[in-house]
Amino acid sequence: MNITNVRVRLVEKEGRMKAVVSVTLDDCFVVHDIRIIKGDGGLFVAMPSRRLSTGEFRDIAHPINAETRKLFEDAILEEYQKVLEESVEQV
């Protein structure tokens, strides 16, 4: 599996959510609504999730091992930094 495209949309509103991301795998499968969140320990990647009737959240799609999670996080955060730098340059 290869990540063939990462599209980052910055969130303009103030708050913990910094961006919404779509990741394309092997030019044939897309995962939308991945979020970049600023937490107490820095930025982290939150997979798309749904709120259950109990109020807790459950991931809809997610990596099933640490190696794949790292692949996703590295690609997403790298593209986020590029988009963030480009947006600052345009101001």
Automatic annotation (TrEMBL):
<keyword id="KW-0717">Septation</keyword>
<dbReference type="GO" id="GO:0030435">
    <property type="term" value="P:sporulation resulting in formation of a cellular spore"/>
</dbReference>
<dbReference type="InterPro" id="IPR036751">
    <property type="entry name" value="SpoVG_sf"/>
</dbReference>
<dbReference type="InterPro" id="IPR007170">
    <property type="entry name" value="SpoVG"/>
</dbReference>
<dbReference type="GO" id="GO:0000917">
    <property type="term" value="P:division septum assembly"/>
</dbReference>
<keyword id="KW-0131">Cell cycle</keyword>
<protein>
    <recommendedName>
        <fullName>Putative septation protein SpoVG</fullName>
    </recommendedName>
</protein>
<dbReference type="Pfam" id="PF04026">
    <property type="entry name" value="SpoVG"/>
</dbReference>
<comment type="function">
    <text>Could be involved in septation.</text>
</comment>
<keyword id="KW-0132">Cell division</keyword>
<comment type="similarity">
    <text>Belongs to the SpoVG family.</text>
</comment>
